[in-house]
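G., the chain you wanted modeled:
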Amino acid sequence: MHRPGLSPFPETFHRSFGFIVFPLCLPPKNFFAVFQEYLFPCRLFCFFCFSFSLSSPIFLRLRMPSFLCRPVGSQHTLKPVGNPKPQSTRRGKRMPILERVAVIGGDRRAIYSAIKLNEKGASCTLFGLEEEPTGTCRGFRKGLCKAPYLLSEALKEVQTLLLPIPISADDKAVFAPFSDRTILLSDLAEAIPPSVLLFGGKIPDLFKEKCRYHDFLEDPVFAAANALPTAESALGLVLLEREGILWKSSCALFGYGNIAKELTSRLLALGCTVTVFARREDARREAEKAGAIALPLESALELSSHFDLLFNTIPAPVISPALAAGFRAEALYMELASKPYGLSAEAKSALRCSYRLASGLPGKYCPKRAGEILADRILELYENI
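Predicted structure as tokens:
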């Protein structure tokens, strides 16, 4: 219906944007009436929307300058869009960036650590890895890392130094199975710059006095992450040693740390009967919740002849000669702990069953995952410096 005296356009037209433009084409006598009835309320509505947008938080963050968005007396600014490089830590210092890394000695997990660090932008230098290692990491040096011939060249302008875990097997030289040279600990200590951050396991005192260091064997975060590849490698080694399956095997675990927890869950999943011998009552309760039989360590002597597989994870001689002599002859004893191990010299001589020293399993049987764990932990530690 037409509205007499106001506009010759239909009522539906006033609902579109045309009612803002076409009144300008009307005669002067009708223009003021149209403005008063239509444009004036529209102007109020637009003014209200504009005022609301100015006061909204979204408008303040997207449109207002950064110095207007910053609270008074605060040092925090708005985060830019994207993934910018970190500029500072919470203490206000500039975050160190991992750039130059020297990997000296070690097994195949050292190689995979260098690969992972190289993917994250670090320039890796390998030393003590001259021989071509066998396995899935063959050909790793093609376009990846430098290979100097002198120890001084390997440590030149180095920011981070990655050594084996443990660093030495004889307390004299660096553990380097892929090298034909002997890297003495004394020579390496003299060549290390004081500004270097050293990573390794069982770090000797002559390195601790020279530079900053981080011992992986004393790192609970690394121990928890490294327990999974250790447990799965132990199961694989058991299958290689025995001529049977794990189903319905009777297993005994001494200790209930990170490795024992991972091993217990996998043995139970494979249909084994698992008995955990632990000193702490809270550890025994945790083992019972996982589905294992938990007993004090002192009660192992009475049940010593009931087990097919025995795993020790306690780095102390907790197995007496009498207990070792009670293991059945067809059983398999696997040592998963570090030195001084769970068997003394007398207890080891009293054994009638098969014995397997299973140290450094991740580096031997799953070096790729073990090396990635090392590299991830190094990057995490650098972020928290």
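Residues 1-22, 57-95 have pLDDT under 50 and may be disordered.

Shout if anything looks off.
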